[in-house]
Q: What sequence folds into this?
């Protein structure tokens, strides 16, 4: 069995597939991929007009960029879009599972279908469905390194009021993503590296109104995207930003639950961080 050349770069010449690619972090990943010489970029988004405009801007002689209107909450639509992407651009070498939604509300205020089911479909099931579709080709092709970047959240590491369903979707994402990483490594597919990104709040508009806890400033999209991208290229298992995300995880792990509740609420103000949440309008 041939091995991946150790000096083969990850991005130049690669086919990159990004979900939620029309704006925010997804747009930044697309621009970074184009800048670094990707051979082709597939922009998946429900906003076809915006994705098409971005594709037209980034498309060039070195990099083919195509927009695909995809509702990732629909499993059949994901499967069909994978086929269209492969037919037009080739099998993805790099997959960025970026699409996500948030409903900032008390759990009993969530609509079962519009909020609970849709959040789980987009944030958790869609990355699994999509990865399952493209992974066999990634595993089989050792001509270049493969990368999967799964955008999770610090909300997947700590409970927080008004984020119950979102947190559940990201806890599931983290568990699946890191398990997939281990499975690939242990089964001899080390050329496919999986990175899980766990950021705190990012000023993309998705979390408009949220306040960063103590010592945890709301990150700019540029800073967050750079950290996630560089971690993915390096094949790091988990990237957590800022540093206080790991601190909170450590404290939550060693302190009694009630003691952590007091510190998280009264000292770090984690539990009140979503009190003024409005979200993207």
A:
């Amino acid at each position: 069995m041939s091995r991946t050349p150790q000096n083969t770069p990850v991005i130049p010449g690669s086919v990159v597939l990004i979900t939620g690619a029309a704006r925010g972090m997804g747009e930044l990943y697309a621009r970074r991929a184009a800048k670094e010489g990707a051979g082709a970029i597939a922009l998946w988004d429900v906003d076809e007009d915006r994705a098409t405009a971005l594709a037209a801007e980034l498309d060039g002689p070195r990099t083919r960029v195509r927009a695909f209107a995809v509702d990732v909450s629909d499993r059949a639509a994901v499967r069909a879009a994978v086929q269209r992407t492969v037919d037009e651009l080739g099998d993805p070498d790099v997959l960025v599972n970026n699409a996500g939604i948030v409903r900032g509300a008390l759990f009993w205020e969530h609509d079962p279908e519009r909020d609970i089911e849709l959040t789980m479909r987009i944030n958790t099931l869609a990355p699994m469905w999509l990865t399952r579709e493209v992974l066999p080709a990634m595993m089989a092709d050792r001509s270049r390194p493969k990368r999967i970047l799964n955008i999770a959240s610090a909300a997947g590491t700590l409970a927080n009021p008004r984020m119950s369903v979102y947190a559940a979707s990201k806890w599931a994402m983290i568990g699946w993503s890191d398990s997939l990483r281990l499975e690939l490594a242990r089964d001899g597919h080390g050329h496919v590296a999986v990175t899980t990104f766990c950021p705190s709040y990012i000023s993309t508009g998705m979390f408009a109104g949220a306040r960063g806890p103590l010592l945890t400033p709301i990150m700019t999209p540029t800073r967050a995207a750079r950290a996630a991208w560089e971690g993915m290229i390096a094949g790091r298992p988990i990237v957590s930003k800022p540093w206080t995300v790991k601190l909170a995880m450590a404290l939550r792990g060693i302190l009694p639950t009630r003691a952590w509740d007091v510190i998280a609420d009264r000292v770090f103000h984690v539990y009140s961080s979503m009190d003024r949440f409005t979200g993207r309008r």
Summary: The longest strand covers residues 192-199.
